[in-house]
Structures are given as C-alpha cells and as structure tokens.
Amino acid sequence: MINNNNNNNHPPSGATSTPGLSLSEHSKLWGNANSTTSSPHSISPKSFQFDSSGSSSSTANKMSPLIRDFVQGLDDSEWQRSLFSLLQNQTYNQCEVDLFELMCKVLDQNLFSQVDWARNSCFFKDLKVDDQMKLLQHSWSDMLVLDHMHQRMHNSLPDETTLHNGQKFDLLSLGLLGVPSLRDRFAQVTIKLQELKFDISDYICVKFLLLLNPDVRGIMNRTHVEEGHEQVQKALLEYCVTAYPQIQDKFNKLMNVLPELHEIASRGEEHLYLKHCNGGAPTQTLLMEMLHAKRK
C-alpha cells in the first residue's frame, strides 16, 4: 500500500507507491474507507493563505447545494504543503538529484491524492472498483493538468522553487507533464480560462465532469456515471448563468476549452510513456501503471 513514513529522509505520506504492484493490486486504495493518504481534499487547511474568490459572498449565494459541497470538500493548502514537503524531503542531504525523476515522484504523489479524493467523492464512490479504475485511467492526466492550472490561477503557485540542496525545480513542468514545448499552449488555455473568470466552483465542477465520463469504454454501471455527469453539468450551467450573467455563453465556452486541456495531457502522457520505454523514467510506480493501462 502507501508509505506513511514522514521524516527527513522520506517523502510524506502517500508520496510513493509500493514497487511491483499491478494496477489491480493498486485497487486496495479504493477499498479502504479510512485511508491515511494525504489527500488535498480531506484535511483541514492550516498555514497557507489561499485565494477564496471562487467562493466569495457574491457567488457563494448562487451555488447549488451540490457545488457548495464540492467546494467545501477542497483543501488547496494541503495540496501545496504536500507538494513542497515532498520536494524538500527528496533533496535533504542530497548534493544533486535527477530533476526529471523528482518530477515523476511528484506526479506519482499527485496521482495517489487524486485516487484518494475520487474514491471518497460524490457519485464516484458508489461505483465498483473496476469502473472506478477505468474512469481514473481515462481522466487522470487531464485532471492533473487542470489541478496545476487551478493552483497557478487561484493559489499563486510559482513557476519554480529552490530545493533544499540549492537546485532550482521547475514547478510549471508538473502541469506540462515534463514537456517544455507545451508552455505556450498551457499559457493560452490559462488565459482563456482567466477571460471566462474561471473560479474555484468552475474548477471543481470541471474536474468532476472529466472524472465522470460516460463515454469511457467498458464501464459496467454507465447509467450511474451518466446521471452523475448530467447532475454536475446542470449545476455548472446554472451557476455560470446566475453567477456570471455578464459572460455570454460561459458554460459552452468552458466546455470548448476541455479538448485543448486534453491535448496538453495527451502529449504529456505520450512523452512520459516514451521516456519510460527508453529507461528514462522510474518504473513500478502508480504513474507508470496508469500510462501502461491506457495502452493495453
């Protein structure tokens, strides 16, 4: 399962997967209702101060109960604490580390947190493990890119940080899944979202829409996924109309951005997969299991 040691020589809880596990064995993550994974959506905020514009009084009153529950379940402060804790712990007492390998470790941690969030989330938690895994295998990279856009837009995630050993780490590379040539594309999508006044309520609804994709092949309980997708879609549409009446057709414009986000995620996936096949990426991680699962 998950390494829960959290000291100066190890990444924080949930940071690494156990070597040698197949994707089916990773399903244990779904089965434990009292997971100890450090999820950015299940721990109370502590020290970080984050932008709360997505739930300001002017828009909070226009949220449906569904969206309000989604937003209240977020904990962005833990997301960044977990990120920076892993970066520092991985470079403690190290003269120099492989920055690409470190990036993969961070993405792996992001995936574990994503799994923990999903399996405890509305609609998704009612599905059987096989359906849950299929949905996550299809959506994980899109959601990772979306998460990093959200953190940069709403929580001031910087472009880079200085590690414990003095090395500079490119935080933007996480959102690009390691492909520097995608920087301009990432920036263009971010600008489009900013122009649409993309807020935290929009973000979490879009994340649910990415996760609850009824078009994923092989789902057994497609009806439940469709119902969840439709409920979130309806709630987001109503929110866009009532909270942002000045932005004409905001909902459809948001939906039109999703293929562009998917393009970034797909190119990033392909890059990571090729690096892995050429021996340039860590093996036996949840990240690599996800990359292989979509190509079986």
From TrEMBL:
Belongs to the nuclear hormone receptor family. NR5 subfamily. It comes from Cacopsylla melanoneura. SMART domains: HOLI. One of its GO terms (biological process) is hormone-mediated signaling pathway. GO terms for molecular function: nuclear receptor activity; RNA polymerase II cis-regulatory region sequence-specific DNA binding. Keywords: Receptor, Transcription, Transcription regulation. Residues 44-60 have a biased composition (Low complexity). Residues 10-21, 32-42 have a biased composition (Polar residues). It is found in: Nucleus. Residues 1-60 are annotated as: Disordered. Its main location: nucleus. InterPro entries: NHR-like_dom_sf (IPR035500), NR5-like (IPR016355), Nucl_hrmn_rcpt_lig-bd (IPR000536), Nuclear_hrmn_rcpt (IPR001723). PROSITE patterns: NR_LBD. Pfam families: Hormone_recep. It comes from the Eukaryota. Residues 62-294 form the NR LBD domain. GO terms for cellular component: RNA polymerase II transcription regulator complex. This is Nuclear hormone receptor FTZ-F1.
